[in-house]
Amino acid sequence: MSNRRNFIKKSALGTLGVSSLLGCDELNNANIIKTYPRIISTWNHGLEANQKAWEILKNGKGGLSAVEQGVMVSEADPQIRSVGYGGYPDRDGIVTLDACIMDKNSNCGSVSFLQNIKHPISVARHVMEDTPHVMLSGKGALDFAISKGFKQEDLLTDDSRKDWIKWKENSNYKPVINIENHDTISMLLIDDSGDLYGACTTSGAAWKMHGRVGDSPIIGAGLFLDNEVGAAAATGLGEAIIKTSGSAMVVELMRQGASPLEACKTIVKRISKLHKSGPEWDYLQVGFIALNKNGEYAGYSLRKGFNYSLHDEKNKNLLIDAKHEIG
Ligand code: SD4
């Protein structure tokens, strides 16, 4: 029955034609077929994460497991210096992790300031499924993870320790745009039925103050979705994203009829206006990705250099340079 419904839905989309479903900017890329299932993720490490998520989805494990296991690829990779194992530590040399996950029914779970657990996204899922809460933080999150069978491990790799020691020579908190500080993985997925899922996980801003929590575990800031409308997620300077409730606002703009690109652009402009005269302006970077209920998608950032990864039936492992506000 549900297969038949999907077939009808897809056939209907087919007869509507691509143009009626897409924002103008996306239409310019004639190679991209707009449909679902579809997965988008921030940055180029999203390629591998998307690949994994796609496999899980195709194996019938569901969208929630797909986004969870997708971003776990990045969490486990020591070369990715801003997510999970191998992530840059805070200024005290301690790796602290933030993550959240959300499903089509607006169920969500989150952990913040979590230490010594390689896969915070899975702990966030347990918070969502096994507790009456949305967010657990710090020691409480760690105790909960241990109670669920997670093993404690040292997440600070030799490479990250060396970089931290080098950073301490000057202790200058001025993140290098697109390199040092902006590689959170946020993943958005629309499945065969048009249902939405999202996940976001990070070690946060490098050299942050001990105890600092960014946007990534905050539902509405680092990630948000409404299954009737669409989904959005963020990367970049968390403080700026939190101040605008960035991802929730992108979704609300889509609810009012904005395309994913228009919605991301509006919020980036808002952030730009708020921070233009602040001391953080010269290192500020924020980027959003958005995916709406039709499978239309976009990415947009304040500065050049943000890219995102797309995976669907036609486009396996496509890396897209996001449009941006300023050079
Ligand atoms: C944070 N938004 O903690 C995160 C950092 C980030 O890629 O995006 N890194 O502020």
Brief synopsis:
The chain is an alpha+beta fold. Helices cover 34% and strands 22% of the residues.
Describe the structure.
The chain is α+β, with helices and mostly antiparallel strands. It has one domain: (Glycosyl)asparaginase (Glutamine Phosphoribosylpyrophosphate, subunit 1, domain 1), CATH 3.60.20. Helix content is 34%, strand content 22%. It is built from 10 helices and 13 strands. The protein has helices at residues 2-16, 24-27, 46-58, 63-76, 120-130, 138-147, 158-170, 238-243, 246-255, 260-275; strands at residues 38-42, 97-102, 108-114, 135-137, 185-190, 196-202, 223-226, 230-236, 286-292, 297-303, 307-312, 318-321, 323-326. The strands form 2 sheets. It has an 8-stranded mixed beta sheet. The N and C termini lie far apart (50 Å). Residues 1-33 have low confidence and may be disordered.
Share in helix? 25-40%
CATH architectural designation: 4-Layer Sandwich
Number of distinct helices: 10
Q: What is the straight-line distance between the termini?
A: 50 Å
**SSE pattern:** HHEHHEEHEHHEEEEHHHEEEEE
Task: Give me the CATH superfamily.
Answer: (Glycosyl)asparaginase
What does the average pLDDT come to? 88
The overall number of domains is 1
Low-confidence spans? 1-33
- Report the radius of gyration as a whole number of Å: 19 Å
Structural class: alpha+beta
Structure ligands: N-hydroxy-L-asparagine
What characterizes the major β-sheet?
8 strands, mixed
Q: What is the CATH third-level topology name?
A: Glutamine Phosphoribosylpyrophosphate, subunit 1, domain 1
User: How many strand elements?
Assistant: 13
The rough form would be described as globular
Name of the CATH class: Alpha Beta
Percentage of residues in DSSP E strands:
15-25%
Strand order of the largest sheet: 4-3-2-6-5-1-11-12
